[in-house]
Amino acid sequence: ARNQIPEPFTIKPGQTIRFDGRSSSTQDVASTSGAGRPVTSTSTSTSSSGSVKTTVISKPVAVVPVVIPPSATTGTGPAGKSPTGWTWPSSGILIGKFSSNGSLNKGIDIAGDLGQPVLAASDGSVVYAGSGLRGYGELIIIKHSDTYVSAYGHNRRLLVREGQQVKAGQTIAEMGSTGTDRVKLHFEIRRQGKPVDPLGFLPRR
């Protein structure tokens, strides 16, 4: 033995004892196993005397999941269609608006060119096609439901017949000036037989 202590290895007061420097193992400061636990980084150094020093160099950082919300989408149906399914019966300048008093106008008037396409404003069935109603010229009436019908007046030529099913945007007539003094389309929407303002149903443009 280095200290030369004979058996039974009795140590006397004041006797000097020498020890060899020994290396020791380093213990982990923190475990990072498992997703979402705090992450800790460490550095370990060994001094010339063999002792081990462990220093924490960063604070625990919590792993926070980032949630990206789906992009919001808004839709108003096909282009040119209102949320209620109505579409403009023709292009052109609005020259007459709905009025329930004074100079009564039961619908709207759209100026255009002679022969310009007139379109069904919504899906439905043709319940009238002719010129028997005074003041409307060549007229088409389409039933869309038990509540709503639409009317298209002053056409030059009618392209659908009574009983025919039509789709929104389908050409049903050619714009004209029958029963009036200029080329235009007179368009009405009626709810349970009463005229309502079409601009409250058609998409903005």
From TrEMBL:
Pfam families: Peptidase_M23. GO terms for molecular function: metalloendopeptidase activity. InterPro entries: Cell_wall_metabolism_enzyme, Dup_hybrid_motif, M23ase_b-sheet_dom. Residues 105-198 form the M23ase beta-sheet core domain. Residues 39-52 have a biased composition (Low complexity). Residues 1-52 are annotated as: Disordered. GO terms for cellular component: cell division site; cell outer membrane. Residues 22-34 have a biased composition (Polar residues). It comes from the Bacteria. Belongs to the E.coli NlpD/Haemophilus LppB family. This is Peptidoglycan-binding LysM:peptidase M23B. It comes from Pseudomonas amygdali pv. photiniae.
